[in-house]
Hints:
Blueprint: E1 7-9, H1 16-19, H2 24-38, H3 47-50, H4 52-58, E2 69-75, E3 81-87, H5 92-107
Amino acid sequence: xxxxxxxxxxxxxxxxxxxxxxxxxxxxxxxxxxxxxxxxxxxxxxxxxxxxxxxxxxxxxxxxxxxxxxxxxxxxxxxxxxxxxxxxxxxxxxxxxxxxxxxxxxxx
Length: 108
């Protein structure tokens, strides 16, 4: 039917939605650790940065994308946004079986 599905990882963004997961004081304690893990200061975790994979994916021709890849929004230490494709840990046979099961469910 011409429908395509892709998997994206938007990355980490500090927002009022994020603060609901844990108390604010705990996030403030975790920020230095997150900075060390990500390699970029917290101010790089803006909405424009974490949506890089969504915007990039939207601009691609879906028939040329690898269906077994997850596209990650990433930010370099200097604040440059980029998309990194990472192979998902699923083999093509399992993916095909899942797709066939979804088709069966759709018919029901």
